[in-house]
């Protein structure tokens, strides 16, 4: 690993929201007296009823409970919009850049207010009340943000489903959260293609399990016609045509849910991670302020999708709570060609760019072409999120995209953490390429051995957090037991992240990746169990085992071992059909990279698949399989090695 050091520039030392000395003082304060520190940060927001109690949290096994600001009341939409109106109504809240490079839009805070209020009134007219769940399945257009904020305004709980997910995945989420309304668009656009969003919703609604949905509100984004169900469907523009542009924000308790976001775990179906109103918004605002050092003149671009937590916290809630100008990009960095990212930076004079290593690696593979046709001199800060950034990709991002002038904030966090936990801060942290560096204010990471001991000093182990922070997820929707089990049962009184990490002599953290059965494919979280259950639903598949393997661009690729059902003939067409099956059943993201058919899987005598062996073979490291003597039938290993696909 690279150990070169990139010190804080003199300019940032004096101009950033925090400097080295201040960080020490603030960090110390934040961990020694979290109540006082977070009470102070709580003042970033406007409260309808001020809080008097700050922190009330326990990580106790089997009864974890996390509450922040619990007697306070506020409204997230008010905080993201209304309070900016007296001074900044005409400031641009959202810059939208279309998939089509000639399409863009600027939305002021005033316009944002009016659009959000109209939709909020429309939702109320259709019977959506405080606490009701609303699924949002939208393209990357401002209306996706309007929909989120309209829900927040009336106290409805939104659950955004990534526009790349299949009807099956939508149906599961509708059923799990009991959604009353779905907000979607007739079509989306991505990389020059139309995405049939409404069609996918229709398919999801064919199932009996989705009968809870009473209304589908459809934004007409393209002129292409879509199927229409007179009973349930209603056009957004018709619903809102006569709605007032004023809507009183509902007073929410700080601990009322703001949203549910589904994410993959190591077992079973994706879980509905629940974030509440007060703590989440304080944390989103505080981290966005310090990590991105956002100033009034900045143009801030987080190139994520609103379907992921990064989009929630750092496209919508964090920047808007801070009155920033947030850029929302509908397309992909390789369309119409690989120069797009730089061109967007120039076109909108982006000063802060936050993207993912997988995008960087995809561009890096194209040599210098991605940085041709743009100057990118407006950039002053870069960010990275989603997976470990390898030092080569870091260097390319730093030198080519940032022209060696902008430090990279490598931010480590998770859907469950609500916001960034380990990160450099501009003006504070000297950078080491590949390291997420140091904990954010109030965050207390630790490394654990597999025997459950805390490791001190330079060490490598499982990453835990020992005390709560306001942005932490409060529960798994409808299954608090699963929340306890997943995060608090591994180590006593600690939040277990599922990640491994190394701490170096300077106390810097280097995230090494998941230590559980969760894959990280192009920065997207996928559970091996989820993919396996989709595979075995195919008639030709008797058994399936899924593992990750190192992939140059995606970070991790998906390697699948399949046992066919009796009498199945293995053909290239069948392999292709299985791949298509998973794409359509789950999502194109989950599409297997390699499919190896086999007559057996390496199992222990008790029938447990030894994934360690499968991972080694998938990584083409079959010479280091370790002990295979406990296998029920060691001979399957030779067959697996001989037929391995990754050579
Ligand atoms: C990984 C995304 C290394 C990690 C915000 C984590 C990272 C999972 C980084 C969460 C980073 C995220 N360095 N690994 N900077 N950021 N990860 O829930 O394995 O989609 O557990 O949240 O992504 O993914 P999620």
Automatic annotation (TrEMBL):
Tell me which cofactor or cofactors this protein depends on: Mg(2+)
Q: Where does Mg(2+) bind?
A: 536, 538, 541
| GO MF entry, a single one | ATP binding
- Keyword Acetylation part of the UniProt annotation: yes
Tell me yes or no: is Metal-binding among this UniProt entry's keywords.
Answer: yes
Cellular compartments per GO CC: cytosol
Where does this protein hold ATP? Answer: 386-388, 410-415, 499, 514, 525
Q: What is this protein called?
A: Acetyl-coenzyme A synthetase
Q: Which source organism does the UniProt entry give?
A: Paraglaciecola hydrolytica
Q: Which gene encodes it?
A: acsA
